[in-house]
Amino acid sequence: MNYLEIEYLIGKTLTKIDVDMEQDVITFTCDNGDKYKMYHDQDCCETVIIDDVNGDINDLIGSPILVAEELVSDENPSDVEIPEYQDSFTWTFYKLATIKGYVDIRWYGDSNGYYSERVDFKKL
Predict the structure, then answer these.
(1) Which of 13, 34, 46, 98 is most open to solvent, judged by the fewest CB atoms within 10 Å of its CB?
(2) What ranges do the domains of the chain cover?
(3) What end-to-end distance do the CA atoms of the chain give, in Å?
(4) What is each CA distance from 88 to 70, 81, 109, 111, in whole angstroms?
(5) Three-state SS string across 47-96, please?
(6) Per mean pLDDT, which range of 23-37, 50-64, 65-79, 96-110 is the poorest?
(7) pLDDT tens digits, 70-122
(8) Is 38 helix (H, G, I), strand (E, B) or coil?
(9) Within 13 Å of residue 92, how many CA atoms lie on the same side as its CB?
(10) Percentage of the chain lying above the pLDDT 90 cut
């Protein structure tokens, strides 16, 4: 599979963004018809979910993406209730922006320590 970095979206103009919180998948459609998918292939002893989308997702539509960056942390954000049992975990933050505004997408992954907790981004 061809996995990409989120920075690949810089300069692209999005026409549609589908956020599926139940399936933990975000699909980005560009004005040239290209589609990109942000997701995680779940394995047995892990969970990777979209925890929060902060900002108006519509601010990313119709103008070129100016900022697309990923930040990864193994520290819990201050606004999160820490689970009683937390073995291995990863927070992944995506900051996307156009001239119209910013959107921050926060993903949470946890596992027994032997599985990936990362988010995948690929062209469909």
Answers:
(1) 34
(2) 6-77+86-123
(3) 10
(4) 19, 16, 8, 5
(5) EEEEEEEECCHHHHECCECCEEEEEEECCCCCCCCCCCCCCEEEEEEEEE
(6) 65-79
(7) 999 877 777 767 766 667 888 899 999 999 999 999 998 888 766 777 899 99
(8) strand
(9) 20
(10) 61
**Model-level pTM?**
0.87
In single-letter form, the type of residue at position 104 comes to: D
Q: Find the length of the chain.
A: 124
Residue where the block lists tokens 């975990």: 89
Return the amino acid letter for 14.
L
Residue 108 near residue 48, CB atoms below 8 Å: yes
In this predicted structure, the answer to whether residue 1 has a pLDDT above a threshold of 60 is no
Closest CA to 51 of 29, 28, 27, 81: 81
> DSSP character for 99?
T
